[in-house]
Amino acid sequence: MTFTPNNQSGYTKTKTRSTKVSPQSGICSMCTDTCAGTCEIAQSAILGMRTVYPITTGSNQIASEKDYPLDYSHFNINGRVFGAFGTEETFESANIHNVDICREYGSSNKIKMLAPFFLPALIKLNWKDYFSGAAMAGVSCVIGEGAFEKDPNLVMQDGKITSFPWLSDILESFNKYYRGYGQIILQVNLEDDFAGVTDIALEKYDVQAIEIKFGQSAKGTQPVNFLKNIEEAQIKVDRGYIVYPDPYNEKTITDYKKNVCPNFYSYSRLPLWTEESLKTRITEMRKLGAKNIYFKMAGYDIADIKKVIKIACDNAIDMITFDGAGGGSGYSPSKMMNEWSLPTVTLEKIVCDICRDFEKQGYHIPAITMTGGFSSEDQVFKALALGDNRITAIGLCRASMTAAMTGKTIGEKIKQGQIPKEFEKFGTTVEEIFQDLADLRAIYGCQANGFPTGAIGVYSYLNRLAFGIRHFGALNRKFDINLWNQTDLIPLTSESRKILSEN
CA distances (Å), 324 to each of 221, 299, 349, in order? Predict the structure, then answer.
């Protein structure tokens, strides 16, 4: 069986001409010289290096298209009919609404969340409602790397940021709906830190938490961005980026004027952290006012995963997010999205095994979030159960952004009197059609009627997931999330059975 998609992709808008494709190469079994060029090879012949990356970025989200041989669907959920654990064994107490799914994490500054959900880093598309919805749902969320690049009013002097006013707007999208649960976190990569994002965010904009990122989009390597002209290339250099070729080189300038200069590409530096340099930087961040420090990691080599967890333990890191293969939304090379990293279920197994070993040695393990391809309550429950209470939260990135975009779009259509047929039977107004708005009114009062529908969409989506996992908790007669474990799972394949039996 071939798990890799054929020589076509949704995020490059390519397809094979024939339905008969050679499994290993992904090329049409009969390739003809009269083809108009629809596959990835044809696209590469025209656009060259640029086709290493998705060409559909912008108003889209990007995700892996590979069908991995092991995922959470390889487990079913167990169920029980006797007893009640985590609550009183009475009809009044043992019900779905009393399943406690709240979470708390943090080394010194404790963060409470109303559900075991975490909205990983984004700063594109409908980011405002993404963060607002997180606050409404009472869960934590992360501002994505490179946010300063999108600020039209950014001020830099000598390669360092002196004013980043857009950050105030980003923070406010969460803070105005904050109700004591969750936290908004600023993610920084190496370029952000070099440019002074971390320092100015903590000192001037009252950012409370920083997430340190290991790799671009936790996908292993840094992005190469095509630049349209020499002027754009020089701006990138002025902002501290590496650019090839050097747009300030005299020969490059002369070649550009003669129209014989190669394309310009900016390149972000690989993070070359050491244990000592990380310790020093974390100490500096805390002195600047950071109350919580997070790590963002992915399915790298097992030795690297172990090292990052050890560093997190030694430096009292509050949470590590592990991003497994199968998710997406970042700007990574197309083939890396499909062919790199550990699948999420495998990554979770490895992370939990390492944490178990460190626990035996007396280490205090930080909160762990697993992300990478999650979208439904059954997946969330299975991942939490598989973790044997070592997984604090499940990251819901693309799915939550989908809810933010859909909520906004449907809200606009309702206001325009263009109600989609699927929702006509529920009413004609936002108040009637958005069913969980009543829950928001119970929290915020009638002012909730004026909330942006994209944020209502995120809240409603997370509310649905919370309600769904409560059902699975009650199904197993476990009314406290801390009781969920691997006995709540039924393996369906030899591979999934092995994951359980190895513990």
Answer: 15, 6, 11
Q: Which of 319, 301, 302 is nearest to 367 (CA)?
A: 319
Query: Would you state the structure tokens that stand for residue 111, as one six-digit string?
Result: 């963060």
Q: Which of 32, 56, 80 is the last residue of a domain?
A: 56
- The whole-model pTM stands at 0.95
Mean pLDDT of the region 219-224:
70
Do 231 and 118 reside in the same domain of the chain? Answer: no
What Cα–Cα distance (Å) separates residue 421 from each residue in 104, 315, 426, 436, 454? 41, 54, 10, 19, 19
Q: Which residue has the tokens 């969409």?
A: 457
Q: Is the confidence at residue 58, as pLDDT, over 90?
A: no
Please check whether residues 174 and 307 belong to one and the same domain.
yes
- Secondary structure of residue 202 in the 3-state scheme: helix
pLDDT of residue 82: 97
Q: Which amino acid is at 388?
A: D
d(CA 391, CA 383): 8
Q: Which residues make Cβ contacts (< 8 Å) with residue 83, sequence separation at least 6?
A: 89, 477
Please write the tens of the pLDDT for every residue from 430-466.
999 999 999 999 999 999 999 999 999 999 999 999 9
